[in-house]
Amino acid sequence: MESSPARKWIDPHELKRLMALMLPLYIGNILHMGMGVTDTVVAGWSSELDLASIAMGFSISGTVIIAGGAVLTILSAIISRLRGAGMAHKAGHILNNGKVLALFLSVVEVLIMFFGSYAFFYVTDNEALASRAQLYVWFTLAGVPANMLMRVIMANFEGYGQTRPAMFVSLCGVLLNIPLNYMFVFGWGMIPALGGAGCGLATAIINWCMCLCLLSMMYGSRQHRQRAGQMLALRRPDWRVVRHILRLGLPVGVASLCEMSFFSMVTLIMAPLGEVIVSAQQVAINVSGVIFMLPLSLSIAAAIRAAYHVGAQRAEDFQAMLRTLLIVTYALVIFFMLVTILLRRDIVGLYTESEQIVELASVLIIYCAVYQISDATQAVMSGLLRGCHDTAIITWANLSCYWGVGLPLAYLLIRTDYIVPAMGAPGAWVSFIVALTLTAIILTSRFLYTRRRLFPARS
Questions:
Q1: Residue 20: which of 210, 322, 293, 300 has the closest Cα?
Q2: Which pTM was predicted?
Q3: What is the pLDDT at residue 156?
Q4: What is d(CA 201, CA 184) in angstroms, rounded to the nearest whole number?
């Protein structure tokens, strides 16, 4: 019987597998963002100084931890590729050496965060603010090793197509974050009130709890118990494997750092324009971040499925996955674009009652909706390239497009009349659209080349 037209484009099996991977990842990412929201709300209840200290402290700790963790995301693609190639027995060896790399990266992150926290005293004259921000970072340091080991354990589950454990521990983290934040920020019994810095201590404790929870789930599973033992075994590192993981993962971490620092620098360029403009920009960025959780989750799912099919050398299955992935991605992104545009004032109203901020942020969110196509494309292509173990281009694309094109363009459009009359905040979003579009074009071109190289029969 001839397949229906829908089946030619959407493969039911791949759709089921992608949704099974993506939905828990999406929920988990949203829950993880909820932890940051909880920190902000509780610190805001304490004082404006505590709220500012968290924002300043997170500018270092968040950037470093996220970028370091991004390096280890390649582990899930490596394990999935081994499964596809029928070499799943090697996954324990990969995890053991991934653990070594995680501990090495932890040391690097701790050193960067510790010494970087002294920069607070140079960027502000408010010594109390700098001290609290530094204490927040120092408390966060205690949870860095747990955060990195947790990435390795999550990679094991994701490499086997299981993303619900990460969602479950994210939910536990959010629920635990509320009482711990309140306890350490305001004090409780013999525990002194630490102010905003207490959120850093709560984060460190939660990281260890989540890590131990994931590890117990791995040990408690008959399917994963042996790999848990192999992962934690005290063995001499196989430096060839460690270098292989680092070679594939480092470009992803650097790309993540480039992207986050680009958005942060654009916000700094806008700072002299006034708090209304900066506040509106922050609202629009936050809305964009929530929407981006969708393509980010699809990107991780794409990396896992692509790696599996590459390992198995199944060209037709890879093509079916690709078609299904792209249709699902753009259908969901267009839906979110329309909802964002139609409900933009209501969405902004959830953040502020200031009419000035609502007016400007509502305009910025239209730009935010437009750039979702390019943002989703570059995210998904990045995931596919990770699945194909072709990651070096991701760094160069992000570095050249964000810092080489996007940042200078942002300055010219926001603050000068060289190209057009100074646009202010909308100029930032035009630069975002240009940078993301160029990144999407480069990564798409590279993926098409890589696909032909991996499956020459389709060239």
A1: 300
A2: 0.86
A3: 92
A4: 8
